[in-house]
Amino acid sequence: MTPGARLDAIVAALGGELTGSGETLIARLAPLESADHNALAFVAHVRYAAQIETTHAAALIVSPALRERAAARGPCIVSDNPYLYFARLTQWWRVHHDPLPPATVHPSAWVDPSAELAPGVSIGPFAVVEAGARIGFGSRIGAHVTVGRGCVIGQRCILHPGVVIGADGFGFAPHDGQWIKIEQLGAVRIGDDVEIGANSCVDRGALDDTVIEDGVKLDNLVQIGHNVHIGAHTAMAGCAGVAGSARIGRGCTVGGGAVVLGHLSLADGVHISAASVVMRSIHQPGQYSGVFPLDDNVSWEKNAATLRQLHRLRERIKTLEKNERP
Amino acid sequence: MTPGARLDAIVAALGGELTGSGETLIARLAPLESADHNALAFVAHVRYAAQIETTHAAALIVSPALRERAAARGPCIVSDNPYLYFARLTQWWRVHHDPLPPATVHPSAWVDPSAELAPGVSIGPFAVVEAGARIGFGSRIGAHVTVGRGCVIGQRCILHPGVVIGADGFGFAPHDGQWIKIEQLGAVRIGDDVEIGANSCVDRGALDDTVIEDGVKLDNLVQIGHNVHIGAHTAMAGCAGVAGSARIGRGCTVGGGAVVLGHLSLADGVHISAASVVMRSIHQPGQYSGVFPLDDNVSWEKNAATLRQLHRLRERIKTLEKNERP
Amino acid sequence: MTPGARLDAIVAALGGELTGSGETLIARLAPLESADHNALAFVAHVRYAAQIETTHAAALIVSPALRERAAARGPCIVSDNPYLYFARLTQWWRVHHDPLPPATVHPSAWVDPSAELAPGVSIGPFAVVEAGARIGFGSRIGAHVTVGRGCVIGQRCILHPGVVIGADGFGFAPHDGQWIKIEQLGAVRIGDDVEIGANSCVDRGALDDTVIEDGVKLDNLVQIGHNVHIGAHTAMAGCAGVAGSARIGRGCTVGGGAVVLGHLSLADGVHISAASVVMRSIHQPGQYSGVFPLDDNVSWEKNAATLRQLHRLRERIKTLEKNERP
């Protein structure tokens, strides 16, 4: 483990065009505004260009458009996509300068003898892998994770601490004022390269399985109901919830705290803004929102009170319009 | 464990009227649309009747109204309430064809010597039952559940993985710009036949107990604040939250992501739509909603901006009306 | 452990002015409405004064304004701030009559040899403290808590069961329809006297650390994204979420289920109502709200439908106004 890396070693590993001294020593990666003179920072967008002259960073990763300006102040790496370059740099840095513990089944974990763990699987402290579950090559199961009976996790997945895969879906038949449990006989199938944030939950299906396709990314405290189907490379931010049997397309994004009601379909490429509630199926890709705008409390109270009369206000406008036209 | 069941065995166990061959072999239960020719499916409602002719199911559970139509295609079970029949069938199937592990205290669980476990209690891996807690007959405590000091769980309850019963309620007295902790000296009392979803939390009371009555069903990631009282057979969907000292009646439903503010009362039979916020007590049963409708982002932005002027728009309508009347 | 305390012992320990018999025996603390004749209750506010005559409490804690009225019915403690007095009384009661188990590292916990635990630290069953983490004097880490690699917890903190400190922040660069992981190389730094509720999550920073300052109180199921900074003595109620890189001031409150979007700044002393969504930075202290008012379902449907035409209604009002003025 070296205490850092030379700029030319980074370019040798990750590509990009080096400008200035390749011997520049990088001790850490840092944001532009907090970078010190041992740090490598990146300029994600032209709108941050003004920080090029003020940052203390030892070197910068910039787009071709900012090459001259960055070179004028010191060493830099020019890349067509600095943000992507930065992502790959963090991965290279992780491996070379801040490695995770080697993949291992922690001695405290409880893995049922009938569960199947592929090579390279890492199981964290106190994790539970129940009977018949299968976990694919290179997946990392965090501390306190539960992978329920018969559930399947693909390759290279990351399940952060506290994730619960395969708890019972929420299914009951009403009868005489009580709830009769519908046993949840399905399981959960999770594809490859899926990442699921801390304390998130994916319920098992009632009869068929709940399915999360390849490359899906779920943030923390996300709830996925039974028999939901999430298409490949969809991402959902923290505290989002998807109710039972909803079907979300590929390449969608769901903002933090958003809710998708049950049995709905979202087309591929649908983007739901944070804290919005999806109450109808969406068949066209695009950005959708539904949030009450924040205001100072007094203004909000007035507007919210008026909102409860909105339909009647519309009737009054209609009447005014009618009276106007002779 | 047989690989399946004959239709007449199901009817012998659960009742209903058999039409067609009782020797029909059922290998699995399945939804209408994905059922194969070894599967038993149910038609929950007349509006799905069109699927009777298209499903590949070996047999169907239908209401009397669909008897002829279902019988025309093959074997069926006629029941006055197919959904309830299906719920009971999943329970029967669970026991006979997909049984849970026998009730046992997992050797990895940590149960305080002063806790009391009734017969038939199941405690999952790494679950914690603290001092003085009591768990009733036949209850199943999942992996990583915490049942806090002095908390009481009734009979036949199910607590899914990661549930926390009896963490401190959120109580502080403000003083000189800081928060002085109010020690939470109450506990949690949970009735019989209560089910609580993965990673949900029920806080202990400040002085008196937090109370969840018989037959309540809480989905995943639900938050119940201190001194809340939830009436029997109320159900709350995922990510719902109830703030401290709220009192929710019997037979209520609270939709996913809905929020009930503190110190409010909801009458029996109140139904709150998903993602709605209850800010005043509700004294009449019925369905209540409050969600900003989702729209494409451009339309939403225009309407949300106008909403911030809604009270003034009302004043302008008033003025128009006044001017109109001479 | 005595079965209770005399009123004069309480006043000797916590101050206040005793009226009536100091020999009054207090067996428990209780709310006014459920207090029995062995209980000590407090009157938080003059608006509850009517309960002074109806409560069965053995003694009352009241403000000077209620001294006469309370003294007329029996023993009382007069304090300038009964709510604060009550908070301190619960702390005294906890120590003397309902003590927590002594601080200890539970034998089932997994603490990495490179982690540093200060004296007086309590680590609950199955808690995980990863490599290089540091936990300050007197902090209590609950059951099933994860404190991730290199994260720092201050003194006298309380982390309730299931809390996850230092899971990866949610950072990905989009590339060719997929998400490229940005390794999260920062950590989490938590100040002194911070309390974090059950199953809440604080993510590690991408490059710099996520920071929670002294005296912050977070309720259950709260999500704090990477690189968030929360100022001292801010409190957030259950199910609230703060997206990445948001900066929340000192002495703020965030209501239950509220959402703060990423990269925003909230000034000191900003108060966000429950279930509101902060979509722009807030530079002035004050109370802010944004919640769709709850209504019976039929009224809500009408108003919500009209809301989707609100911008056009405004145009129609403009037209009416234009036509009116000749």
In short:
The structure is a homotrimer of 326-residue chains. Chain A has 326 residues and is an alpha/beta fold.
Q: Can you identify the CATH class of the domain at 5-97 in chain A?
A: Alpha Beta
* Average predicted confidence as pLDDT of chain A: 96
> CATH-wise, what's the superfamily of the domain at 5-97 in chain A?
MurE/MurF, N-terminal domain
Provide the gyration radius of chain A in Å: 26 Å
Summarize the main sheet of chain A. 9 strands, parallel
Query: How many E strands of chain A?
Result: 36
The order of strands across the largest sheet of chain A is 8-11-14-17-22-25-28-31-34
In the CATH hierarchy, what is the architecture of the domain at 5-97 in chain A at level 2? 3-Layer(aba) Sandwich
* CATH fold assignment of the domain at 5-97 in chain A: Udp-n-acetylmuramoylalanyl-d-glutamate--2,6- Diaminopimelate Ligase, Chain: A, domain 1
Tally of alpha and pi helices of chain A = 5
Protein name (chains A, B, C): UDP-3-O-acylglucosamine N-acyltransferase
Family (chains A, B, C): Belongs to the transferase hexapeptide repeat family. LpxD subfamily.
Domain UDP-3-O-[3-hydroxymyristoyl] glucosamine N-acyltransferase non-repeat region (chains A, B, C): 25-92
InterPro entries (chains A, B, C): Hexapep (IPR001451), LpxD (IPR007691), Trimer_LpxA-like_sf (IPR011004), UDP_GlcNAc_AcTrfase_non-rep (IPR020573)
